[in-house]
Amino acid sequence: MNFDFTEDQHEIKRTARELLAKRSGLEQVREAAEGEAYDESLFTELRELGWTGIAIDEQYGGAGLGVVELMILCEELGYALAASPFLANALGGLMIEHAGSDEQRAKWLPGIASGEATATVAFASGAASEVVPDADGAAVIVLIEGDAATLIARGEAEVEPVSTIDPTRRYARVTANGGEPLAGDVAGALARAEVALSAEMVGIAQRTQEMGIEYAKERKQFDTPIGAFQAVSHRCAQMLFDTEGARSATYFGGWAADADPSQLALASAIAKAAACEAAISVTASSIQIHGGIGFTWEADVHWFFKRAQLDAAMLGGASKQRARVTQLTAASLASAGAA
Amino acid sequence: MDLTFNESESAFRDELRAWIKANHPGDEPAGEDEGYAFRREWQRQLYEAGWAAVHWPTEYGGRDATLVEAAIFNEELARARAPFPANVLGLLLAGPTLMIWGDDEQKQRYLDPIMSGEEIWCQGFSEPEAGSDLASLKSKAVRDGDDWLVTGQKVWTSGAQYSKWCMLVARTDFDAPKHKGLTYFILDMEQEGVEVRPLRQITGDPEFNELFLENARIPAANVVGGEGNGWTVALTTLMNERAGLAFGLQVGMKVALDELTEELAASGKLDDPMIADELGALHIKCEILRLTAYRGLTATMKYGQPGPEGSLTKWMWSQGNQELMQFATKALGPQALTGGSSWGRAMLRSRGNSIEGGTTEVLKNIIAERVLGLPRKK
């Protein structure tokens, strides 16, 4: 029993934190958001460092590491609020790697691993999806409807950019005109994608928690740092409570994906539910702690709040996950009782 | 990350599980005194088989169990719905505190009877005027030759009526700043100057007591950790309290939650999406508590003593358990509030969770100041 990263994993985390602090500071995030365009050189650098292929099998040009390592990168990218198609590509890659046929893997994973032909994934209804992350630049799109997933090459889809409240990421409306089924373990693949997405939200919560606490230490009212008032400090403690809870659940989900998939269905539902709620509540709290400044366009905290909203809605929100948790738990109790 | 039990942890769990199965004492009898006697007998059984204090070093009669194994012990006990040993405060608080701060004679004298349950311990910290602001306590100890004489009042003293010894914090220096003038004593409860009065709680049960001290005599040899060092020694006790209890409490919550889930499933109420949603939220909280407690354990194994993070799991548990009990009585309907159901009583008892062992408000202060580094509260 050791609930901590290995030395190598810590090293990945440290390296990612340092690199993104240089390459994706809040000024760069703002530039991408206000310009409604990614800094292409950032994604190029991540590709060249091999980040895009971290969890993809070596035979397809990836590094062959696990969901845990991918989760670490996603958390750090969330912490930096990096504006790039990394997450959508990684989630799409997980779907194809874990639910695709050998042929589909061979066709798409090398491009996803190198980042030269990216993927994305979204929930859909009637072969269409209103809000698909980074679909416009993607080479391949996975749409999930119920228990089934369809793989659609870019040429077989109508893709129309849409604006959302989160300008740090590009979104599009997608209508499929063709496609082929992803016939493998869709639920298992989706669970892995949920863990990676949860990790981005943990990073978002962590960063905004730190921003709020930093501000509470500096900002004085009534000649006192506002963080000395319990109405404020208890809100800060609540941010830690929410962030750490989501982190525990997400890390466990990553571990289950790599080491004990029998626990993954429940673990990923718990991770996603906890991360959605933490990302929204912590970013909202951080805005509140920043007071009047927090409500302005000039403060950076709103970018995180906006990203949290879109992330939380991606691949099914917290309510769906809570229902799943009840269903899975009741079923496992019933089967234990019957045995 | 490796969230499985290794070979020796699994072996420990299997051995314990088999032992509990063969020796399970059955259901605890009703009634405070009967229940206590039952748990005391259970502790004697654990002691004789070498299970009473697995986390203690072998030199003091424990198994030198790792923190993970100690967590497994609490988890397995709760999972088997076996009672916790009677002398829980002695095992989790007094023992570890004496191991750190006690002198050789104290360790020699007190540790074994704690483990066997032969001598029960209680905790004399809180006072009517000193709850969250513990360091402002007023019980007064004055020197009388080789002894100390203590006068004052303590409250929330659970198990005092069964106790031989009390971990007592009293003021020995009224001129020193409030944290500095305290001393930690071992008080003999069996003497004239000590009066125990049952304190009836909102459940109607007298689980706790008031303790009245009037010139209660304590030999100077019963000072723990040195005169004037009582606050530091008491903090050791409090940190152990929050860290040590988490696993048993978490499993207790999980057992109740699973029972509730089965009851709701049997009555068809799980088909109600509102019920399913709230129940799912509770399962999520319970699992997060378990995982966060294990993360804390890993950190403690790496960095030593349990840290202020233990405050987080205590807060998670008290909030989760209260929400669970409130939800249970709502979801099961008014019959859960009748005398024939255990849920109503459990719901009432849960209101104490966010007060005992540090109020949630104090825990938030600890997290804000000692984990997040915010300025001291106004």
Structural write-up:
The complex is a heterodimer of chains A (339) and B (378). Chain A is of the alpha+beta class and 339 residues long. Chain A folds into 2 domains: 178 residues, Butyryl-Coa Dehydrogenase, subunit A, domain 1 (Orthogonal Bundle); 147 residues, Butyryl-CoA Dehydrogenase, subunit A, domain 3. Chain A is 60% helix and 12% strand. In chain A, the strands form 3 sheets. Chain A has a 4-stranded mixed sheet with strand order 1-3-4-7, with helices on one face. Chain A has a 3-stranded antiparallel sheet with strand order 2-6-5, with no helix packed on it. In chain A, helix 5 runs antiparallel to helix 7. The relative contact order of chain A is 0.11. The model of chain A has no long low-confidence stretch (mean pLDDT 97). With 378 residues, chain B is an alpha+beta fold. Chain B has 10 helices and 8 strands. Chain B starts with 6 loop residues before the first helix and ends in a 7-residue tail after the last helix. The interface between A and B is large, with 51 and 50 residues.
Name of the CATH homologous superfamily of the largest domain in chain B: Butyryl-CoA Dehydrogenase, subunit A, domain 3
Estimate nothing, just give the exact number of structural domains of chain A. 2
Largest beta-sheet characterization of chain A: 4 strands, mixed
Q: What's the total helix number of chain A?
A: 12
Q: What would CATH call the class of the largest domain in chain A? A: Mainly Alpha
Helix and strand composition category of chain A: alpha+beta
The end-to-end distance of chain B, rounded to whole angstroms, is 41 Å
Helix content percent band of chain A = 55-70%
The CATH class of the largest domain in chain B turns out to be Mainly Alpha
Element order of chain A: H for helix, E for strand: HHHHHHEEEEEEEHEEHHHHH
How helix-rich are the residues of chain B, as a percent range?
Answer: 40-55%
Total number of domains of chain B:
3
Low-confidence segments of chain A: none
SS summary, helix count of chain B: 10
Quick one: which chains have the greatest interface?
A-B, 51 and 50 residues
Series of H and E elements of chain B: HHHHHEEEEEEEEHHHHH
Which outline of chain A best applies?
globular
Structure class of chain B: alpha+beta
The counted number of beta strands of chain B is 8
